[in-house]
Amino acid sequence: MGTxxxxxxxxxxxxxxxxxxxxxxxxxxxxxxxxQYWVGAKVAEGLMRPDVQxxxxxxxxxELDHAGRVADxxxxxxxxxxxxPKEWYEKTKAGYLVPSNPDTTVLLDQNIKGERxxxxxxKELFDMTKSKDIITAHMARHIMEEEIEHxxxxxxxxxxxxxxxxx
Length: 167
Known about the structure:
This protein is an all-alpha fold. It contains six helices and no strands. GO terms for molecular function: ferric iron binding; ferroxidase activity; heme binding. Keywords: Iron, Iron storage, Metal-binding. One of its GO terms (biological process) is intracellular iron ion homeostasis.
């Protein structure tokens, strides 16, 4: 844990415990998003399956990276990332949409919903920290930018599938 980092956050007026709790919620979201993308890529069926699988696998890797970044930030603030995976369901804001329907368009729509929830989570973290904890704010902004890119990537695939269905 970073002593000076913790001191800066505490002196900023931020409630460190509340911030760590919000970061742990984001951490849970990232792990669930990782799995939702990963397993969705495995079960995907339908139009443009190879393209959808590739995109879902790429996003899964990026969600795992986000989980690592958030965990590092939690630790640097003197907290502990969620240690029990069963707690992810209790702490998540974005939730987990079971990819029980393997249709590529259904999977994409589920993941678009997840990205939109993640964008909201990181916007909230950014707003909470932007003038008080620039380290967390920078991390939240960076991850939010990537989540926005993910949403666009998935929306583009939905459009491509829609055009393919018309042919």
